[in-house]
Amino acid sequence: MTVLRCAFLSLLCLGPLPAQQRPAREALQKLLQQYDKDHDGRIQKAEYPRGDAAFRNLDRDGNGVIDATDFDPARAPPARPPARPPAPRVSPPAAGNRAAKLPQPGDLAPDFELPMLGMKGTTVKLSSFRGDRPVALIFGSYT
Amino acid sequence: MFLVYIREAHALDSPMPGNHGLVEDPIDDGERAEVAHTCVDELDLPMPALIDGVDDKVGKAYGGWPDRLYVIGSDGKVVYAGAQGPRGFDPDAWEKAIVAAKAAAKAAAKAAATAKPGDQTQQPAGKEPAPGPGLPRKD
Question: Which of A13, A53, B3, B90 could be bridged to B49 by S-S, CB 3.0 to 4.6 A?
Answer without folding.
Answer: B3
